[in-house]
Amino acid sequence: GSFGKTMGGVMYMHSFTGGGTLLSLGLSIVLYTMFVWWRDVVRESTYEGHHTSVVQYGLRYGMILFIVSEVMFFLAFFWAFFHSSLAPTVEIGAIWPPKGIDVLDPWAIPFLNTLILLSSGAAVTWAHHAIIAGLKQQAVYGLCATILLAIIFTGLQGLEYVEAPFTISDGIYGSTFFLATGFHGFHVIIGTIFLTVCCIRQWMGHFSPRHHFGFE
């Protein structure tokens, strides 16, 4: 599914025949896999009681390793950016930003999106503390606020891409900008899906003050 989605996306962006079809098929397989995975996890944890303390320890360590891998993943993009910006080569004019690149205003959409991200972090923390305190309705409100802020963030980032005066093909600056922010936006979209599932589960009463590992 993921391979088909990736290949379909590349083919679609290069106007190859069948690229859109392969992209849609791969995306459908990924979405179906996500649905089946969540169905099984909810069934095992909520109704069958398989998420014992030992299982939860394993899941926690797995999540820690995943977060470490994510840190390394984005560190590579920051490394590329700092390597190119702190010692710009003669090929890009020995200056940074490279000659001919009109940069985005950091106090416009980027600053607004930063505030939205910080606000969403506060909202999901509110939801977490509400679950611990047994306040079901407040937890739902906090999750809904987080999801709404995430959707606004994604929309603003899309608007930023449309209005950007440079593209991903404009040398190292465009490459590092769109790869780093693009993968970050992709993580926000995936996180929005996860939080939506958590919100539905909280509304259905799956989480309790002592058992909410799926949320954490």
Question: Your description of this structure?
Answer:
- This protein has six helices and no strands.
- It folds into two domains: 1-50; 71-215, Up-down Bundle (Four Helix Bundle (Hemerythrin (Met), subunit A)).
- With 216 residues, it is an all-alpha fold.
- The mean pLDDT is 88.
- Helix 4 (109-132) packs antiparallel against helix 5 (136-163).
Q: Characteristics of this structure?
A:
216 residues; mainly alpha; Four Helix Bundle (Hemerythrin (Met), subunit A); 2 domains; Cyt_c/ubiquinol_Oxase_su3; transmembrane helix; mitochondrion; Cyt_c_oxase_su3_dom
Q: Distance N terminus to C terminus?
A: 27 Å
**CATH class call of the largest domain:** Mainly Alpha
Computed over alpha carbons, the radius of gyration is 21 Å
Q: Which strand-content bin applies to the residues?
A: under 5%
Number of domains: 2
The number of helical segments is 6
Tally of DSSP β-strands? 0
Structural class: mainly alpha
Secondary-structure element series = HHHHHH
Give a quick account of the main beta sheet: strands, pairing sense, barrel closure: none
| Portion of residues within helices | over 70%
Residue stretches low in confidence (pLDDT < 50, at least 5 long) are none
Overall, the morphology is globular
CATH architecture of the largest domain: Up-down Bundle
Mean pLDDT across all residues, rounded? 88
* CATH topology (level 3) name of the largest domain: Four Helix Bundle (Hemerythrin (Met), subunit A)
